[in-house]
Specification:
Blueprint: E1 2-7, H1 20-27, E2 32-37, E3 50-52, E4 60-62, H2 64-77, E5 82-92, H3 95-101, E6 106-111, H4 119-124, E7 128-131, H5 141-152, E8 185-186, E9 189-190, H6 200-218
Parallel strand pairs: 1-2, 1-6, 5-6, 5-7
Antiparallel strand pairs: 3-4, 8-9
Length: 225
Amino acid sequence: MRIDILTCLPELLVSPFAHSIVKRAQDKGLAEIHVHDLRQHAINKHGQIDDYVFGGGAGMVLRVEPIAAWMDALQAERPYDAIIYLTPDGETLRQPLANRLSLFQNIIMLCGHYKGIDERIRSTYITHEISVGDYVLSGGELGAAILVDAVVRLLPGVLGNEESALSDSFQDDLLAPPVYTRPAEWRGLAVPEILLSGNTPKIEEWRHEQALARTQARRPDLLGQ
């Protein structure tokens, strides 16, 4: 998978992609992540990429020219399965959406900033608009980092155990059940005996019951209630 990210603050994305699972995916050649600075296509020598809002109002808007220049250049090199704009008014990122995106080969992610981007970019280039939650960030960079992590970890060969992602929260519309490791007893708190029994069918039954109970208590909306 190749992911191209357009941003006016590329330095914000250095650390998230230089460690842990996303770095492992890149080292294995399973994912390519390219971060592009919108200011490389600034409209003047001062590096301007934004302007005032037509009609008045506070805040600045990213101009069409720098974004369009990058979009056109990248699309001239290869086809893209999705061109994503990170925006608070987009579709909320949920696990099924991450699953679908993980099947794509080439993706562009556009990070908004200030008051956002000129609407003509949205109507001309964008195929998907995604929000990481019902809150506003200073820009789309952190949202892009979240989306990249959520998608890249699903690529075959990225995780050490292929089944690990399948048991994550939200994969089956349930939260994950409690998990335990050694020691079997700590400060008087013991691991449930069923997990030490070696009875795999019973263990899976217990885990499903626990996942269901946890979802009912914490996220009943996932159960359609």
